[in-house]
Amino acid sequence: MASKSRLTYETRAIQHSDPMVKKLFELAETKRSNVIVSADLRNTKDLLDLADCLGPHIVLFKTHIDIVTDFSDATIRGLKDLSQKHNFMIFEDRKFVDIGNTVQMQYDGGALRISEWADVVNASLLAGDGIVEALAKTGTSDDFEFKNQRGLLLLAEMTSKGSLATGSYTQSCVESARKHKNFVIGFVATRALNDVQTSIAASDDEDFVFFTTGVNRATKGDPLGQQYQTPEAAIGRGADFIIAGRGIYAADDPVEAVKLYQKERWEAYLKRVQ
């Protein structure tokens, strides 16, 4: 299946059948941004302050909500209010990995109430296709309050040194996505995966979205095995949206940092689609 990465966000939004993906591409086009900030902050005030100052420049605000020590209703309300104020979506990097029944309860309910506020979540396929089936069943149910307003990414590859998310595991992720494309909107991966062959053939209109992590302008890695690539390299490998964390929020001036990432990534995207 040929990659659609050389088409503009506007064209892909028009052609795409999934309302979540349409919204995502439309946001990118409107804001002239393909930036996702990974906000690994440990209290509600810092999290919301960052969302407020960076919100105008991003398309998604990515959280690890289980590290927020004072998580409460105020955290949820704040995130939802700011997403409306600045027109961005929320991505909870939960990496669901358990049996289907447990994951359903973690997603739609539980202490974190993830389905109420996170537009996008992700999952690992280590537990098998049942985890994707369970989340898809919840997200597409007529009884689900947020039907057609939520989407799932599969963690197909990782940027950490020694990652086992390679080969047959990555192939299984692509197959599962094709099987559950009514809820799976794309992948977290280091490259576009359109050429991965599975027992389920790609449809002519297949257009999964690719999110790439491990992007940092200033460094190539950290002491704990993270491996970084530049924004230009990530876009060149087929990434539609690039996730950056410490390169933005740990900068001396996070707003100036996110503006620089936004400018460079948008220029790299324009170069790709020309």
Fraction of residues in helices? Answer: 40-55%
* C-alpha end-to-end distance: 20 Å
Tell me the number of strands.
8
Biggest sheet details:
8 strands, parallel, barrel
The SSE order reads: HHEHEHEHHEHEHEEHEHH
Count of helices? 11
Our estimate of the beta-strand percent is 5-15%
Radius of gyration equals 17 Å
Silhouette? globular
Low-confidence stretches are none
Mean pLDDT over all positions? 91
Which strand order do you get reading across the main beta sheet? 1-2-3-4-5-6-7-8
Structural class: alpha/beta
Overview of this structure, please?
With 274 residues, the chain is an alpha/beta fold. The chain has helices spanning 9-15, 19-31, 44-54, 73-86, 100-107, 114-117, 130-139, 167-179, 231-236, 246-249, 254-273; strands at 35-39, 60-63, 89-96, 120-123, 151-155, 184-188, 209-212, 241-244. The protein has eleven helices and eight strands. It has an eight-stranded parallel beta barrel, surrounded by seven helices. Strand 2, helix 4 (73-86) and strand 3 (89-96) form a beta-alpha-beta unit. Helix 5 runs parallel beside helix 7 (130-139). The protein starts with 8 loop residues before the first helix and ends with a helix. The relative contact order is 0.15.
